[in-house]
Amino acid sequence: MTSERRQMVRYLFLRLLPAWRQLDAEDQRAQKAQFVSAVKQFHGKLLLRPYSLMGTRGDCDAMLWQVAEDVDTLQAVETAIFSTKLGGYLTTPYSYLGVTKRSIYDFPTLPDGEDRTVISPSDSRYLFVYPFIKKREWYGLPFEQRQEAMNQHVRIGRKYPSIRINTTYSFGLDDQEFIVAFEGDDPGAFVDLVMELRETEASAYTERDVPVFTCVQMSLWEVLDTLGGAAASREVDTRPTEGDGFTAVARVSDLPAGASKRVYLDTEAVALFNVGGTYFAVSDRCTHGRASLSEGRVVDSGACILECPWHRGRFELETGRPAGGPPNAPLKTYRVKVAGDQILVG
Ligand code: FES
């Protein structure tokens, strides 16, 4: 038995059958709602990040990045998903299973306290995922030579600080040896990084590192809307979450006064604001269009009025109520509290 805390990690790629788009609008809306409810049952049991691949890849439409403490939870999620009506129209073109593990190589230059056995995703817009297999000759090289080759890898990676890597291990669990997932906001920077890594010694020992998936992070409702069909009629619920139900979403140091940040709570994208030392959290998606409100600005810090970046719709941050411009529907609001260094939302 290992004494490390390890997590089970699954990248589940989904494809929607075209027949679903022929269903009537009410049915499509109801199926989206049922799908979200099925996934939400697992709030608190695992970390689940939804991504859309519409427009980035031809053979799959969505991806659910799941991080759990055991395989049973992953099985339960998949059973729930495929027990929905929408699940009857979904196929699984790709699926990768891995586990977190501390690297056998020594990287003293990595930031202190970085714990590679617990996945802690950032709020980056993109996730670039691929399965990875090394040539067997790599494992026959002296350890010192492999360590030096990995040092070269790390040196190049540090030239691209906006790109963050998550490596999970699949030896014996799934067909690949590793699953590599890079988080970042700039696909161009990622291309530059990968091109530079091709010139390293370690790269010569790559057996396979395809297919590659460019995944776009968004809330589960938004992912479902990218699939087409009737737009999800997301019910706005301004009641506080039952029970305690707080989740740590950011560090206090991430959000100085006047700053905003998009964070993720379960399957929802949430816009977090620090207005003069008071924190507010509202749904990140504007109720008028699809703007990301974490990119909006607080135009009246006294009354805490948020202005949408697209059509200048305004909302009260405290209540979520519209306060001018095109939006008619209120935003969902969340409770916020601070505990030590952490900002928690619930
Ligand atoms: S998308 Fe926000 S006001 Fe139009």
As a whole number of angstroms, the C-alpha radius of gyration is 21 Å
Q: What portion of the residues fall into strands of 2 or more residues?
A: 25-35%
- The chain-level structural class is alpha+beta
Unreliable sequence segments: 111-115, 236-243
String of helices and strands: EHEEHEEHHEEHEEHEEEEEEEEEEE
Describe this structure as you would to a colleague.
This protein has 346 residues and is an alpha+beta fold. It has two domains: 8-226, Alpha-Beta Plaits, CATH 3.30.70; 247-345, Rieske Iron-sulfur Protein. It has six helices and 20 strands. The two termini are 35 Å apart. The model is unreliable at 111-115 and 236-243 (pLDDT under 50). The structure holds FE2/S2 (inorganic) cluster. The site of FE2/S2 (inorganic) cluster (FES) has 11 residues, from loops.
TL;DR of this structure?
The protein is built from 6 helices and 20 strands. The protein has 346 residues and is α+β, with helices and mostly antiparallel strands. It has 2 domains: 8-226, Alpha-Beta Plaits (2-Layer Sandwich); 247-345, 3-layer Sandwich (Rieske Iron-sulfur Protein).
List the helices and strands and how they pair.
Layout: E1 8-16, H1 25-40, E2 47-52, E3 62-68, H2 71-82, E4 90-99, E5 126-134, H3 136-140, H4 143-157, E6 164-169, E7 178-184, H5 187-197, E8 206-208, E9 213-217, H6 220-226, E10 247-251, E11 260-265, E12 268-275, E13 278-283, E14 297-300, E15 305-307, E16 314-316, E17 322-324, E18 333-334, E19 336-339, E20 342-345
Antiparallel strand pairs: 1-3, 1-4, 2-3, 2-9, 5-7, 5-8, 5-9, 6-7, 10-20, 11-12, 12-13, 13-18, 14-15, 15-16, 16-17, 19-20
The protein binds FE2/S2 (inorganic) cluster (FES).
